[in-house]
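In the laboratory, one determines a bound structure by crystallizing the protein with its ligand and collecting diffraction data. In a computational setting the workflow is compressed into a single prediction: the sequence and the ligand go in, and a structural description comes out. We illustrate the idea with zinc ion.
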Amino acid sequence: MTSKAVMAELGWKGARQTRLEKAVTSSLGDDEFLRMTEVLRFPPQFFTTAPGSRVDAADLLFRAPRSTTSTEKEYLAQFAAALGDFLDSLDSRWPLPPVKLPIFDNGTPVTYAAGTVRERMGISPDAPISYLTYETERCGVPVITRLRRSRSTGALSWDPVDDDTGLSEKHLGYSTRVGEYGDRPLVVVRASGSWERTRWTVAHEIGHLVLHAGGGEVTEDQELEASRFASELLAPAACIAGEVPKVPSLMNLVPLKLKWGISIGALIRHLSASELIDVQRYEMLRRQLYTRVNPDTGHTWGKTEPGWDAREAERPRLLARWVERCYGANSAAMLASHQLIWPQDVLEDFLAGQRAAPVRSASPSMATSEGSKGGTVIAFEQFRQRRRA
Ligand SMILES: [Zn+2]
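The predicted complex, in structure-token form:
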């Protein structure tokens, strides 16, 4: 809502709203207060609770496309701030995983930074990261998914990513630090069906968090640096060097892509930047990727690469898990009875796109006890048939 609309609804005139917004605390009459909570559709408790996180549009680590309006940036900042307060309230009930991500000085080499982050994640230097979103959250960095359409905002302005250009500075996610003391890193990613893009965006945002913690507008160079970090985190050049085919082609790079979980687009840039392929080979592969058409999808290979359907896109789980732990709830609707300070549609945005609980019947003892009732046996048979199909 614009200020004008709010003032009109509440019958406020002149500088009254500005005065209310600027004051540290204000008193309103009961009727006026109630009316305000109705107009703004937030619970009364929201207005009587001091905010903890302060996030400014300038604190967001991302390079916004030129078309991003200041209102949109402000929205992204306030969304992060609200998430920060939500995380703080969860943390006070059940401590969140401690933050294990380091912060590096300007100019730290990307290979060193990525190697250290792998170490903090407890992943060996020569092993692929099987589920990056989980490892990230285990390091104390909650990952939030934004859906294209939400009840609180309607359809978001969401420029289609022009994959065929191969440009990487489009806004697929952003990161920042939240919490009363600004020490809780947070990654927000757009929901995408592409598993390659989802993983890569998370890796790229970790790059910003560890390399560009100083904040301020993200520069073109920092954008490139975060991207180089992402590739190095997913597929350390020193480890993959021995696995690169002698004459790399789009097709013979697929096993490397699938093993390390990195798109061919990012992989060929990475191989070129790490001097594992020469410039001519890189240009040739790049041209093929963005001009040849994948017959299964009708898009170029750049948009739907070979192996595009080999995995499901990663989804976060930490927030849903903590809501379960703290409130025994597994949906925003189930939080209603807890009188939180946010309306249900905003809580739905917080919890959007979280992964469901892992299926427990995977454990042999469970399978046996459930199998005797017959249920799991059928489910497993269906699963096998799907696999065969
Ligand atoms: Zn970026």
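The pocket of zinc ion is lined by residues 62-63, 204, 208, 218, 223, 226 (CB under 6 Å). Keep in mind that any predicted model is a hypothesis to be tested, not a measurement.
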